[in-house]
Amino acid sequence: MPAQTPTSDLPATSKPRFPLRFDLADYAAWMQGYDVFDKSDALTIKEKKRHAQEATIECFLAALMSHLAGGTSVAASDVQDLFDRVPSLIVLDGLDEVGSMAARRRVVQEIDLFCSRGRAYAVEPRVIVTSRPNSAGLPEPDADVFEVISLSPLDHALRDQFLRKWCAVHNVRGNDSRTLRRNFNERTREPYIGELAGHPMQLTILLYLLRQHGDATPSQRTELYDAYMNLLLAREANKHPETVRKYRTELLEIVPFLGWYVQSRAEEDGHSGRMTRDEVEAAMKHFQRTYGKPENVVDELFEAATDRLWALTGKEQETYEFEVQSLREYFAARYLYRYAGEGDPRFDRTHVFRELLRRPYWFNTARFYGGHATGSDLYVLQAGITHELTDNPSKHVRVASWSLITDGVFNSRPLEAAANVDALTDDHGSKLLLEALDDRAIATLPDPSHAGKVWERLTQAIAAHPNNHVRMRVIRDLLGQRRQFARWWIDRLTQAIGTDDEIAWLRLGAACEVIAGDVIDIPGLSAEDGERAQLILNTGGLPQKGSFLEEQLRRAVLDGQCTETTSVRSELARIAVALSPAEFYSFGTRPTPQTPKASSPDRRSQAIQLLRKSGSALADVASFRRFQRGEKGSTSPGPTPPPRCSTRSAAAGLLRRSPSSVRPCRFLRDIRVCQAHKHWAPLVTPRRSSHTPGPMRVTPCGGATGSKRATTTTPWPSGPLRSGRSQQATPSRSSSSNLSSVSTGSRTGGGVPSASRLFASAKPGSLQSDQ
Description:
Layout: E1 18-23, H1 24-31, H2 57-68, H3 76-85, E2 88-93, H4 101-118, E3 126-129, H5 156-169, H6 174-187, H7 191-196, H8 200-213, H9 221-239, H10 241-245, H11 248-269, E4 275-276, H12 277-290, H13 298-308, E5 312-313, E6 319-322, H14 325-339, H15 349-358, H16 363-371, H17 377-391, H18 395-406, H19 414-424, H20 427-438, H21 452-464, H22 469-478, H23 482-496, H24 502-510, H25 530-538, H26 548-558, H27 571-578, H28 601-613, H29 618-623, H30 642-657, H31 667-676, E7 696-698, E8 704-706, H32 740-744
Parallel strand pairs: 1-2, 2-3
Antiparallel strand pairs: 4-6, 5-6, 7-8
């Protein structure tokens, strides 16, 4: 790292690794026989395709190291010895830039084999593979070996930070800086501009244009690139009239041709996208010759396209490539849209567009291509989507078509936009698009006016079958109609109260927190049983203060009937999550048993933080349920050490100071029964102690307590805990009388349970007794 680089904000590295990085496009071309290290010859000259034993990642790294070492020979065995001796980090960059399907499949296979061999080293190498989102089912490294980490779009805070730094770098200060930030914030509220600003490359272009044009800045993706390239050409033409201004028209034709040329070669024969000067000039001469233009101006065109513009840059000596892949795809689309089929009166644009739609490597090119369409050409796109969905309704075709809609391509033709949305969201297509949305491969529909036709169809289908949650997600997440769906759901639930469909509608709303943060104002809604109470809490609604519904929900929470709460919107939901025993039981006898969906440490921490922020004493009660010092991994601590005694006593004190409605309830018993009923033997594993553990004793009002000495001859419960709510816990026959109050849920008599019995100290994921 350079000495001038500030390191105060960087995390400390306790276990450093030796870093290695290379482009997978180079690796794919090298496997095909290209010499990617020789910059003097054109890459079109290649040797015989390498055999499998000579095409491993270790062999490529050996060739790369030999080249960079200035002639020192490095063998694959040397690379393996390095990995065995030195902890390493290998970054394999740009899997999406491997255009050929066969080449990509082979690259992925070699990555998996490399990772398998890495397990034999003293310290297994850390491997990172970078790629764009994969919506076409292209080969990817083994999901059981790699953890997939998706980069989210820039949020508001990161955009603001980027904007401030951009202004500082470009010396935009004072009133100019404030005006630019104000214009930027106003424009990003527009749906299409907001989506563009989530990506660094497009955000950079957007800021340039906002500074130059203000409100006249385009809002569509392709138009944004068009405006930016025109801005660059105008700037460079003023600086260099002898080249750029003189050949401006030629540059607007020949640079798009180079983009298409490189993109096509990358897909066909695994070309890396990098060209020597000879290759660039040969391609330019071919273009000039094809159109009958003079070839003696190629040197000047080359200078204008490389030295004056950022379209082609020399990242490595004597080689040239497009600065970023999206720029290459933009130029390829521009060339296909404007020049493909020239001179052929029977040429059909629909054929070109369908080819782009179905090819995963041309996904972004298809989006740029669609962005060029205006007027009657939009109907060409419409016909292409319709025919391709009929002949090839694959996930990738749907993702590409949906992206054109969210890019705003059909904004000037709302009827066609609505028809496309309706065609893409049939039952099969909806599942595929939701998968892509979860993978961040597509965006939510920005313009709600395009969703009218689909809204009518899906709401009618949901009204007939409210158990279909996929259609609900399409409306809320894919179409972005959350508020409208919430109002519609409230109307339907109000009509269903007291009927057999009430539970189905509550389940539908609970699956998505349909009224998250809103006050519940639904006449006749009642939490008369535990299931309804649980579902009402999970809808995210807030019961009205002092209402009968709030009292019903409070009683259900404190009675332990809402142990599967997933929402933390209301205070009662937060209490249920904070004190839920879900993390103390699991299902199955596998090494990693399944845990209930409601068991989430992150959600529980969030609930406790929100309770503490609101000043609830139950936040401190819940925090005492953590493992104390010396308790982790144990089931019966034996003699209670003073620190543990003091914390449990504090918990008891907090519980006594809580509202009276909290104390005489079954909630604490629910935790204790879950602890005591382990569904595989042995049930209790006490720590060595001079005391003999006594039996579990159930008080009429609350928790199951234990004593150091036996007070009765009733044996410990040994029956299994069935999956479901705590009321279904089935004790052994000999202990049924002692657990009867748990089963019946008596709310009378008794005081606060023993302080040491209040909260679980068993290891999460098992049903173990604290005593």
